[in-house]
Amino acid sequence: MSRGLVVQKYGGSSVANVERIQRVAKRVVGYSKKGYDLVVVVSALGDTTDELVELADKINPNPSEREMDMLLSTGEQISVALLAMAIHKLGSQAISFTGSQVGILTDNSHTRARIIKINVDKIRAELKKGRIVIVAGFQGVTLNQEITTLGRGGSDLTAVALAKELQADSCEIYTDVMGIYTTDPRIEPNARKIKEITYDEMLEMASLGAQVMQPRSIEVAKKFNVPLHVRSSFNTQSGTMIIKEVKKMEDVLVSGVTLNKNEAKITLCGVPDKPGVAVKLFEELATSGVSVDMIVQNVSHTRSTDISFTIAKADCLKASKITKKVAKKIGANDVLLDEDIARVSIVGVGMKSHHGVAAKMFGILADNKINIEMISTSDISISCIIKKKDAEIAVKKLHADFGLSKAK
Amino acid sequence: MSRGLVVQKYGGSSVANVERIQRVAKRVVGYSKKGYDLVVVVSALGDTTDELVELADKINPNPSEREMDMLLSTGEQISVALLAMAIHKLGSQAISFTGSQVGILTDNSHTRARIIKINVDKIRAELKKGRIVIVAGFQGVTLNQEITTLGRGGSDLTAVALAKELQADSCEIYTDVMGIYTTDPRIEPNARKIKEITYDEMLEMASLGAQVMQPRSIEVAKKFNVPLHVRSSFNTQSGTMIIKEVKKMEDVLVSGVTLNKNEAKITLCGVPDKPGVAVKLFEELATSGVSVDMIVQNVSHTRSTDISFTIAKADCLKASKITKKVAKKIGANDVLLDEDIARVSIVGVGMKSHHGVAAKMFGILADNKINIEMISTSDISISCIIKKKDAEIAVKKLHADFGLSKAK
Which residues in chain B touch residue A18, judged by CB atoms under 8 angstroms apart? Predict the structure, then answer.
């Protein structure tokens, strides 16, 4: 009879110190003793990656991406070795592998490589020997033996890709929270843990600010229909299942409320209202690697118009410099930078078939005297840019009025 | 015209922090600009290896050697990436490689692997592109893609093996001291830096306690006649050349005095004076991985004899346990452990052709009322075990009386 195969991924906070590594080892061994074949993907210990980035920055603020991958991939290599040792200590068999050793083949895009192929023969062979297989997350290798990394949160991707390739029965993502919440529980203590959520909703929530999982890994899980279980490594309660379709009560329109305070707004005032003007600006921004998020062009009453857009705060300086340059070229009046904004969003597949969700959202904000500066919508989400000072109250009110709070 | 090729090795203290890494980068770039092809071997930053060992020990005091290699090899990987970044910052081209990437093929003996073959094609190709090639020291890879390490000080071996394989014009070992000294300058301020020393003398000195280079790397250098230059990474003065033959004044008998305080002595008293008794003891010790250094069996006047031997202090507990067990079995009287000993040695190829060097050494010690407890000799060295409290004075007197001190 074939044994079940489970892929488990433990994030950095789950292996932040000796005691936590031991706890993960215990949990892993417990699973293994239940009769599962286990493949365990581990991130770097706690803040290791940040510390290495900081060290590199002191040496070269503009480091080669190839060398960054060389540097950062050591973090996960340390984790897998230590976890293997901890499992050995408990008397079970385990073997650790780097991404390179285990055959996670990627393209050449250092620091954001894409997985091309995984050869799981080695893993299968080790599982057959009765060993727990521990794989370094976040990293891969090119055909040319160059070490690559998969971008921030890349260990999620490693786990999902392995689960797909190994046709695992389940893929568990262990983290320091209990699962996916209807909103950030630090803002709204009434936030509920979501039992089931669709890939699409999770993707939307992740890209709108929920930081539990890497968006790319959810895309891949969706593409190959890998069911994910996001749960806490600190207890044994079940967390949130991320799956294809969720059977919901008909009146559940909104699954979650997200908040993102890491954006800034730039407004280019008095832009001559002629075709092709906006294009110039966004071309220049794209060329410089500034990724623009929302864009709003006001309806113009005169011969000129205002264009507002949001960007990541980190790109503020670069973006406002470029915008000022373009403003001069095209004869715009002024460039305004506003860092005191927040994006509050509601997410839910229920919106697709229900009208009036946007209107309800705007109404809730209006009732609370919160001014909406920009709006952006997708099939399953609506985002509003508001003043940062209104952010928390907006989240709380939306959360309550869309019926997400815990039953009293 | 072919350019000169230099292999440089920088030890952990030479890359202990950001500022030192930058200094090494500067030195390397300076050499490269002089027109040399450069291959740079780097150890782990400062105390990284010790810190990783400590971390592993907390998790599993008896860790798998395979996983230890997995863990420890990250130290050098961090160093090479950072050094590459530092060189890039100075505007030069450089590329870093792990032992695995660069094709340092070893056997399967984890934590003390032996190099089988090095494929230097990759290095040559990168040098041809005008790049400085940085190689992680201390590590290799098996045919099966398993990561191995070459034992403590293994980066020296990496450098020597690369120098041999690349037929380098020179192999420079950078360290935090100025070169090889006639004795430890911390004990004897009059110690002189040795300009030239033979492989054999250096080997002897290294195995007798001088910690500048890994003994195995010197063996390999000797075997393939790779000239070594041991020098400081903190200045540009030339250090010590380690070569095949040194032209010396005829009256130079002794090249250096070494001291080793890391041994302990065990005496097994009242051993029945029958053949095969000693064998039992040393077999048991060897089986348990205790490496015995000097052995002295006292001339017996009665039917029983005493056997004394020295071991590394780290093996004390294990060794005395085993000896007590054997003592019981063979009917010996008593087992004595003495940790208050030191080994003082003189080294010099000049001894080979001169008699009376040993007598002179014993005389010097006797004149200073230093009791000799054990004696061991080789072709080019004489070692005496003395009381630890006499160690420093013994070194000073031997150093002076064999004419090694600085000219006044």
Answer: 55, 58-59
Average pLDDT over residues A289-312: 80
Task: Inspect the interface and report whether the beta carbons of A74 and B71 lie closer than 8 Å.
Answer: no
- Rg of chain A on CA atoms, in Å: 23
Confidence of residue B1 (pLDDT cuts 50, 70, 90): very low
Asked if A248 and A203 touch (Cβ cutoff 8 Å), the reply is no
Please count the other Cβ atoms lying within 10 Å of the Cβ belonging to residue B405.
Answer: 17
Percent of chain B with pLDDT over 70: 97
Could B85 and A100 be called an inter-chain contact, meaning their C-beta atoms sit closer than 8 Å?
no
Cβ–Cβ gap A82/B95 under 8 Å: no
Decide if pLDDT at B72 tops 90: yes
Residue type, position A92, single letter: S
The CA-CA-CA angle for residues A60, B95, A69, to 5°, reads 65
Q: What is the pLDDT of residues A210-255, one digit of tens each?
A: 777 888 999 999 999 999 999 998 888 999 999 998 776 556 778 8
pTM: 0.86
ipTM computed for the complex: 0.84
Indicate the residue type of A171.
C
- A-interface mutation test, from B21, B66, B72, B74, most A Cβ less than 10 A away: B74
Rounded Cα–Cα distance for residues A233 and A23 (Å):
8
Q: Which residues of B touch A (CB under 8 A)?
A: 18, 21-22, 52, 55-56, 58-60, 63-64, 66-68, 70-71, 73-74, 77-78, 80-82, 84-86, 88-89, 95-96, 98, 100-101, 145-147
How far apart CA B380 and CA A22 sit, in angstroms, is 51
Put simply, the answer to whether B55 touches A86 (Cβ < 8 Å) is no
Q: pLDDT digits over B199-235, tens only?
A: 999 998 888 877 778 889 999 999 999 999 999 988 8
Range B40-64 average pLDDT: 95
**Angle, helices B48-59/B65-89, rounded to nearest 10 degrees:** 150
Residues of B in contact with A81 (CB under 8 A): 56, 67-68, 70-71
pLDDT at B297: 77
First vs last C-alpha separation in chain B: 47
Q: How far apart are CA A127 and CA A6, in angstroms?
A: 11
| Interface size, chain A vs chain B, as Cβ–Cβ contacts under 8 Å | 102
Is the sign of the CA dihedral A79, A81, A86, A92 positive or negative? Answer: positive
Nearest to A81 among B18, B21, B71 (CB): B71
Angle between helices B65-89 and A48-59 (to 10 degrees): 30
If DSSP codes are grouped into helix, strand and coil, which group holds residue B136?
A: strand
